[in-house]
Amino acid sequence: MIGLRSTWAGRICLAVASTVILLFLVMPIVVIVVTSFGKDALGSFPPHSWTLGWYHQLFAPGSKWPGALSLSVLVAALTTVFSLLLGVTAATALVRRDLPLRSAVYGLVLAPMVIPQVVIALGLFLLFDPAAMLGSPIAIALGHTVLAAPIAVLILMATLRGIDERLEDAAASMGAGRLTIFRRITFPLAAPGMVAAAVFSFITSFDEFFISQFLSSVDTTTLPVQVFNVLQYDVDPTVTAISAVLIAVAVLALALVGVVRRLGSGRESGLLPVDSTAALPGNEVP
Amino acid sequence: MAGSVLAPVPASTAPAAKSRVRRSLRSRRTRSGLLNGAPIVVYMLVLFVYPILSTLFLSVKGVHGGLTLHWYADALSGANLAVLLTTLRISAETSLISVVIGFLLAYAVSRLRPLWAGLVMLIIVVPHFISALVRTYGWIILLGDHGVVNSVLVDLHVPGAPFQLLYNEIGVIIGTTSVMLPYTVLLLYAVMRGVDRRLLAAAASMGAGRLVMFRRVYLPLVAPGLVNATVLSFILCLGYYLTPALMGGARQTVVAALIDDEVMKQNQWNGAAALGVILLVLTFAGLSLLRLARAIGASARQRGAA
Amino acid sequence: MRSQRGSGPGAGALAGSGKSLSVSGLRKTYAGVVAVDEVSMEIEAGEFVTFLGSSGSGKTTTLMMIAGFVEPDSGVIKVGRRDVTRLAPQKRGLGFVFQQYLLFPHMTVAENIAFPLQLRGLSKAEVRRQVGQVLEMAGLEGYGRRRPRELSGGQQQRVALCRALVYRPPVILMDEPLGALDKKLRDQLQTEIKKIQRELGLTVIYVTHDQEEALVLSDRIAVMRDGLIDQFDTPRELFERPRTAFVADFLGAANFLPGRLENHTDEHSLVRLDHGALVRARPHPLAPGHRVRAAVQPGRLGLCAPADGFCTGTVETVTYVGTLVRVGVRPAGAESPIRLELPAGRAPVTGEQVGLTADPGDVTLFGDEEGR
User: What distance in Å separates the CA atoms of residue A206 and residue A202, rounded to the nearest whole number?
Assistant: First the structure.
């Protein structure tokens, strides 16, 4: 590569600094995973002795975690469905069709990514409280979809842009009808993107705190809200284990996206499991 | 299949625009576009725009009806004003620190070979998708009086160790920065990858020293990315309160936490709405600043080109 | 017959029982600009027809209307006896080969070729047999399990060709299929396409802007300009009896020699060229005294002793192009040299005085206002 040769001293400084910064990113995650296997779950690091006890206790009778976990999974599943339905139609309209006021629609769809989530949560609270829907999994999922749908739309738009629309014309020229074209051409080509959109919708909901917090009731709390309450009020050693579970879910989800991308058409390569910037808020400030 | 992409692009002329609009509305591509675009538009209007408008309305509604600015006066005075200033301070500190160290990291990654760059980016991206709540908890474990950080410092006989790193501003800044950092790195990395390094070689060939080169060539090239990352992470911090709530003390209460408190504990919806609108206004101010910066950048480039 | 700018026997005269595609009065405008203007033609079964023209001539739009990707404003398209004008592309039963190949990236080569057969409900065994057959024909045995992106451009285009002909559509449309390939590969594939087309008796409509490609491949060529067909004829007719100056120029880069029509004999028209020479040409209906241009292809001119030719000049340039030599001869008083193509063995020397000969049948006259 044409460029500048850095001095050795400069290189070493940069390498040391980057390593420290990377540790800064990774340490809080590593410490939770390691501590969750330690006998003294809240204490010394690294632990002196090991146990799986905290994980057993997660599902012990009287534990509050299974309820929170199943609510979170239910909400995340609903959110994924809503967000995919909205995402597929919206991405089709934005990429493949002529849409009047296209840029206004695009701005509206992406706006939730830059508006403070606490404001969205407050607004949703004001919407659902009069309807007596607080604590309803559906209400929480509807709220999460406001945050998840923009991400799904961005991923699916990128996916559709990557599919040559003329392939559909080619299939039509051979006699394939609309349904066949969708089933045999468009859908298989879009599948990796749809998996990615589904996974990111799921994680967005699964980890979401603000909207869940505002829309929860006493007996329906999602996992992040429960974790927050435990951390703030009654520290309970099992919280380390459940945090490790949350980490595992996120890592597995990302791995799934990576694998599907690899298997899929295999056209895109690269180590990033994510279209690294597509899933980020703010890149497309209207 | 009329209007297929295969159709050669027609030479565009401008006959009666009105009839063209009417014709385009009749075209199947437009009808299908409206049909496909409608669900998300309706959804966002009902579950995003309407709630925000009703927040806006609630923030100017008096207790016995009528319009009032009472809630804003309340939100901008006394303890509430202090909370607002705290929020701005913490957001500014966090966004500046995460842009500075994000710049270092992104720069280092942009100099790596593609394979290594990919691996390092993986280390940066994965935390981004792990719950901020969980990462904050990790920091609580790390920064406690007997946590890893303090034990290491004590073992190294650093004078004054162990330090109080939790439930004060240091803890909040460390925690929030760690949450914002992947985001700023990704934004900055995208910009840095687009920098043509041959420009630096060209500058060097003209005899520019390292510092001059950095200041006169590299920095101007990545400046738009820096502004972008700073403002966007500032905006994200404004509405964020998990880490301040868990790692801060009473003096690190932020606006978002106050909103939560007013709604959940005090049933002070109007006050909460006013605070929410203030956050919203600050957000829009930040976004407008970005637009302004982009416009200035664009016009500067145009002048440069001319 | 508005589409025929010239006169004489055109496509209409060839209409027979074996026609496999006919187009009449086809017209398309984009926002008021005419892209295709009342194009009519009939194509016989087994014929290789090329639409030749530069970009914007309407050749691709015409092809897309036949395929069904573009809806005509008016006109009728018939495949056999069936009117398909308003049918969707998938209901027309035609084949299409695209310039960009457009192989399905998620399917193997064999799956790509099997796709149209599966749509037609063939049994698995039959699909496998036919796919194997065309792969062999295209010299792609052993490539069936590869993915399209693992093939070279030329191989991909062969697969695209297989995919378009495997289900035996009555007409195969090809839109500059070799446009993305380099010259050598293009020549090779031209030969292969022509061979396969002959062997299987395929009816092909081919679009290109490359006149050499059109001449190599086609039974008949429709030379298009500004949405109209200038002439629809065999390559030989186009070359020897161009109906418009545009055709003469586009196909062979003819010499255009300005002059005035002097008189007519029984067999020829006589033209006094501007630099004084007198040349005999194919008869032209204009009255003597009119300004005309005499078009003659560089390959149809010959050299002789200065006194024996219809005109004399000085050899200005001699350029060897393989087995041919390109010679520029400037008659005294002429603005630009006349271009000749001769076998390399008969090359003159620069500065030599030579005479030029031409068979009157190779010299075509065009009125001065006509075309270009």
Answer: 6
Query: Is B71 contained in some domain?
Result: no
CA–CA separation, C98 vs C103, rounded Å? 9
Touching chains, C (3+ CB pairs < 8 A) = A, B
Query: CB-based contacts of A179: which residues, under 8 Å, 6+ apart?
Result: none
* Residue A181 structural domain: 55-263
CB contact under 8 A, A173 and C120: no
Are the C-beta atoms of A72 and A223 separated by less than 8 Å?
A: yes
Position C117, amino acid: L
Confidence bin at B7 (pLDDT 50/70/90): very low
Q: Does A246 touch chain B (CB under 8 A)?
A: yes
pLDDT at A42: 60
A117: tokens are 């989530």
Mean pLDDT of chain B: 85
Judged by a CB distance cut-off of 8 A, whether residue A111 touches chain B is: yes
Query: Do the Cβ atoms of B168 and B249 come closer than 8 Å?
Result: yes
Name the A residues in 160-199 with CB < 8 Å from any B CB.
165-166, 169, 172
C25-45 per-position pLDDT tens digit: 999 988 888 888 888 999 999
Angle at C233 between CA C230 and CA C237, to 5 degrees: 105
- To the nearest 10 degrees (0 to 180), the angle between helices B28-44 and A102-110 is 30
> Which has the closest alpha carbon to C28: C39, C17, C19?
C39
Q: What's the domain range around B118?
A: 94-251+281-301
Residue in B120, B178, B183 nearest the CB of A280: B183
pTM equals: 0.80
Angstroms from A61 CA to nearest CA on chain B? 24
Of C102, C120, C173, the CB nearest to A164: C102
Token digits for B243?
Answer: 């880490």
Of A90, A97, A224, the CB nearest to B131: A224
Selection from C43, C44, C98 nearest residue C69 by Cα: C98
What CATH code is carried by the domain that includes residue B290? 1.10.3720.10
- Specify the number of domains making up chain A: 1
Q: Among A44-58, B194-208, B252-266, C358-372, which range has the highest average pLDDT?
A: B252-266
CATH of the domain at A87: 1.10.3720.10
Residue A25: inside a domain: no
Token code pair at residue A266: 């295999």
> Is B54 a member of any domain?
no
Confidence bin at C369 (pLDDT 50/70/90): low
Q: Is residue B106 part of a domain?
A: yes
Nearest-angstrom CA–CA distance, B117 and B210: 24
Sheet holding C33-44, edge to edge: C33-44, C19-30, C74-79, C82-83
Write down all domains in chain C, each with its CATH number in brackets: 11-94+169-247 (3.40.50.300), 253-367 (2.40.50.140)
- B302 CA to chain A: closest CA distance, Å? 22
- Give me the interface pTM, i.e. the ipTM: 0.87
How far is A247 from chain B, CA to nearest CA, in Å?
6
The structural domain count of chain B equals 1
- Could you tell me if residue A92 is inside a domain? yes
DSSP C74-134: EEEEEETTEE-TTS-GGGT--EEE-TT----TTS-HHHHHHHHHHHTT--HHHHHHHHHHH
Q: How is residue C85 written in tokens?
A: 């004008």
* Distance (Å, whole) CA C100 – CA C4: 32
> Up-side HSE of residue C20: CA atoms within 13 Å toward CB?
19
Residue A63 belongs to a domain: yes
Rg (CA), chain A: 22
Residue of chain B with shortest Cα separation from A147: B48
Residue A269 included in any domain: no
Pairing of strands C172-175, C204-208: parallel
Predicted local distance difference test score (pLDDT) of residue C7: 37
